[in-house]
Please model this.
Amino acid sequence: MNELFLKIINMSISASWLILAVLILRLVLKKAPKWVNVLLWGIVAVRLICPLSFESALSLIPSSETIPLDIEMAAKPTIDSGVPAINSVVNPVLSSFAPPQHVLTSANPLQIWIPILNIIWLIGVGALLLYTAVSYWRLCRKVDTAVRYKGNIFQSENVSSPFVLGIIKPRIYLPFNMNGQDLEHVVAHEQAHIRRKDHWWKPLGFLLLTIHWFNPLIWIAYYFLCKDIELACDEYAIKDMSDSQRAAYSQTLLSCTANQRIFAACPLAFGSKNVKTRIRAVLSYRKPHTWIITVTAILVLAVVACFMTNPRQPKESTAQGSNYIDLNQPPTLDVIQNGQTISDRSSSEDRQREVELESALLGEAIKKQESLTQIQTTDFYR
Model:
């Protein structure tokens, strides 16, 4: 379990570099279609989900494994963030945790702290999952008296602003006091959420937030994901409207969000927020030119190439991990006793045994030759 925890931390650190790149790219792509921003957050989600990645010389991620998975067993624990300034600050602190080399029975304090941090992480995950379940249950109870308006659209007196609820069979919930043009615009907006499968992507984003809750950048990414989803949905709904219709749509946004809280009650529900930003985006909407689409595509591909891949690792030496063995090289001698290596001592003993065996065979041969000479001499005199 500790190894899984460290693996998730490394994945979160790698994804943090991609999040920073996406936050910068959002500022550059202000004139690009809003769905591009949602696509960029989808790339971040893939980076957080996929434990494997290709190595590339184009990668701008400093290190693919900042924290070694066996750091708690290391005699001198260190990290490799790929940033020397960070390593110079963190590694001396980690080294201070290591027990003295002459104290062989002392345990590495990281063997205690990592399981504790693992438990804290699991408690955080459980708390967010419990919050989601309770919020969803309370919201379902709040709309259990809703009346069907038509299709998957329901109206309820307990609803103050429209939202979408549900993953498999999403429903649109509206307040009773909504009618006319406002109703038309709101339904168009919420139906756009369903067509774009936003009722899948937001729960997925919150699930990733639940797993990586310890990373502040993941919270920032989730906030902008929700914001960009709403902007992209507005863009989808108004792309064929006239200027006067967009002005009426903006007025609907303003009236629907007057009494809404800043944060949604349930992570699995969609509501309208960031109304000022959305109204400005609606009123200033223009269909993007071809060159904007082209530049955007190039930048997105560059982000994928640079931040969805890991840096190439230097080839390890033969002694460190290669399976190749050079038969022409003498054996490595690394165990010394009384100034003499075990390999050298074994070779000397073997040679001594060979010399003793040769001497014994030679002595026996000489004795046999002398016996044979005596017999021949006796026979000659007879």
